[in-house]
Amino acid sequence: MKDVRIDLFSGDMVISAPNRSSRPTDIKPIMDEEEVYDVYDLNCPFCRGNEEYAAEKTFEISNGSEWVCRSIYNKYPIIDESCEGIKGNHEVMIDTYRHNGSFYNMSEKEFNNMFLMYKNRYKKYIDDEDILYVSIFKNFLKKAGASLIHPHSQIISMSMVPKDVRNEVNILKEYYKNENESLYKSTIEKELSLNERVVYNGNKFIVLVPYASMYSNEVRVVCKDSTKFENLENDNLNELAYIFKNLFEKIYKICGYMPFNLCMHSHPKNIDCSDLFNLHFHVIPRKYSFGGFEISNGIYVSSTLPEDFAKKIIFK
Q1: Where are the beta strands (DSSP E) in 141-224?
Q2: Which residues form the DUF4921 domain (predicted)?
């Protein structure tokens, strides 16, 4: 059965058409193959022991005498002091010293260190008076935009609020104006009552497969209240580490070694939305590409029912 769904947070229109996944094809998929790597690679600038080949360090977490994760300036920044019309910085955050690490095999402790690093670098930039937004994201495998295999994330500060974030804020304000209630609060309560797309329900965070998404099999990790990322407690970061370890184990079991993007949407500065906006993470699979229908019409087709996918990756 096909139906049309609207993502209330973005306004995207999605046609749910699960039968599309059964189409015959004689075209081989272009996918990154899972390979076996060593813990250390002599030619990798992100590996522990190869620091001389990397840019200047900005932060690190050590285990005794050796670092386990660290951040460095990006040698090929999107935004830096040479940009006209926008101020900001661009860093690479090395998720783990292990060259053969990935979200699919990292330990809970490794995730915990990574989120501590995320928070440290985020707080460093969001406190800058010239900065209005800080973006944290991750590209995994070539199809998702990664250029190096060593597990890493990126952080970019900017003196502007991106269009997609401004669009969401406007939607949140309009919903509150009409309903006198937060869209996040309403959505979380509805999802918990239906219990069809909830993957995990914790103390601070809930994990959902969204009702409508332009990306088939997208997962969202949503803070249950309006706490800002820089104000999360260590217990909250521990919960995020637990969520990501278990979530990606489930995704690997169902989808395999899948390329993906991770995007963190945090509170913008200088926009009055603190009580309406909830910190959230998008886990966006890059298994499928958009076709002519999506590109020409701005209407997206999902070949997977969110309810079905949620059942496959649920965890406690």
Answers
A1: 152-158, 198-201, 205-208, 219-223
A2: 123-314
